[in-house]
Amino acid sequence: MAPRKRKTAKKDVKSMFINLNAVLDQVRKDKGIPKEILVEAIESAMVSAARKKYGHETELEAQYNEEAGEVELFQFHNVVEKIETPDLEITLENARKLDPEAQIGDELGEKIDSHQFGRIAAQTAKQVIIQKLREAESDIIYNEYKPRVGELINGIVRRFEKGNIIIDLGRTEALMPISEQVPSENYKIGERIQAYFMEIRKSLRGPQIIFSRRTPNLIKALFAMEVPEISEGIVEIKNVAREVGARAKVAVYSKDSDVDPVGACVGMKGSRVQGVVAELRGEKIDIVTWDDDPARFVCNAIAPAEVAKVIIHEKDHSMEIIVPDDQLSLAIGRKGQNVRLAAQLTSWSIDIFNETKHDEMTKRAKKALVKDLNIEESLATLLYNHSFRRTVDLADTPLQEFLTLPGLNPEELKTVHARAQEVASMPLDQRPSTHFFKEEEERMAKEAAAREVEAAARAARDAAAAEKAAQEAEAAKEASAESDAPASEASDSESGPVENSDVKAIDNQANTKLASEGETEAAKE
């Protein structure tokens, strides 16, 4: 096909868009959209508007003339000898009126006056331009923010929609759903917020940016910002377990033996970890050392409680943690918080027992093996130490694997294994251990009842003895009071005359004094 040619000799043909250079430059600065995309949008709008008038069969093309600052629209025809399709073909005679050099088989373009499109076509062009600009702006925002997924981004709380927080990022907005918010945190419109950039989604309304302050990755990002050793790759955060708004545990590991990972994250006088805690609005953080040994890692994770013993069950991926009696509440934590975070951090199922409770459970498990398998207690202890805690565990173990236990007679092991399978097939209430423990519980219940009766009788005897002693003391008191009464009356009779004689003596002295004073007065006269 011959190359396309166009005729621009019609000077009165005008474009719908003129002097576009200044407009395009201004839009490019305001929206950040490249000029090429803007030109493509206008060209597409011109073609869409022209099709409203000329139909979809017509071959149209829009070209941006940068010198004139306008978009030129052309309708192309094939040069033929005889016209069969008027909208697509033109005779050689008419073609040479536009281009004297036109030949049969050429494709000739004729410039169209876009001012003749009318209001509907112009409205179509406007909608196409707006749609193209939105798509272009959405693509720019998506391409700008896509590489930043996983970063901490600052924004301003702009509004609230059905509990969701809309965050202003400048050129666009982000959404923090209710499910990604911390219940204890409250924000006001206009307040600064720092959140973790979780993901970006494409939607009909443009890219949707999702923020979160609930994800454990927020703590990782905050530590990476506060601790240079993490950003440099020397210290690595292996895992984070978090109960949002309350407490978190962070497992850290150092690739350099000379760098303490916990100390690096804590900082001088706790300055680094305090910065993270402040951003989390007071959420407590425990930093522990990661270890590739699961037992050591769990012991570190259960801190600050001390661990006395760890029993690992590989089959069900669980551990039994034995702690001193006075450390049990510390190991479990408030409402089980410490052990939950430790299990989440290590990905192991954790059961915590104090030493007293564990000893009782051990004795009961060994006794059950003795009764079910009809073996000596020493053999039960050996089986228990090889993680055969229940008869069912032993029965579920393949015979060949069970015969590999060291230091035991294979024939005896076969007998024990067969007995275990026999007992395991019994209903639970018919197993020997069940009968034994039931009898034990009944015996202990009778002993407890007897102790209660004895204690009640003892209390009754003590109460009777106390009452008798009180009665005897009261009688003794009354007898003592009766014996003291005559003696007091006798003493009162003896003291009575003495008091009368004293009164008379005092009266005589007063009379003598008055008489002497009278004589003195008479002598003076």
Task: Explain the overall architecture.
The protein is built from 17 helices and 16 strands. It has 525 residues and is α/β, with parallel strands linked by helices. Strands 1, 2, 3, 4 and 5 form a five-stranded mixed sheet that branches. The protein has a five-stranded mixed β-barrel with strand order 6-7-8-10-9. It has helices at 20-31, 35-54, 92-98, 119-145, 217-226, 228-231, 261-266, 271-279, 294-301, 328-332, 337-346, 355-373, 377-385, 391-396, 399-402, 410-424, 432-524; strands at residues 4-7, 59-65, 70-80, 89-91, 107-111, 152-161, 164-168, 173-176, 192-201, 208-212, 235-243, 247-254, 284-289, 309-313, 318-323, 349-354. α9 (294-301) runs antiparallel to α11 (337-346). The protein is elongated and about 150 Å long. Residues 1-13, 493-506 and 517-525 have low confidence and may be disordered.
Write a brief caption for the model.
The protein is an alpha/beta fold and 525 residues long. The protein has 17 helices and 16 strands. Helices cover 50% and strands 20% of the residues.
Shape: elongated
Helix content: 40-55%
Q: In angstroms, what is the radius of gyration?
A: 51 Å
Oligomeric state as shown: single chain
Structural class comes to: alpha/beta
Strand content: 15-25%
Number of strands: 16
Give the end-to-end Cα distance, rounded to a whole number of Å: 179 Å
Detail the poorly predicted runs.
1-13, 493-506, 517-525
Instruction: Output the number of helix runs.
Output: 17
Average pLDDT taken over every residue: 79
> Could you describe the largest sheet, including whether it forms a barrel?
5 strands, mixed
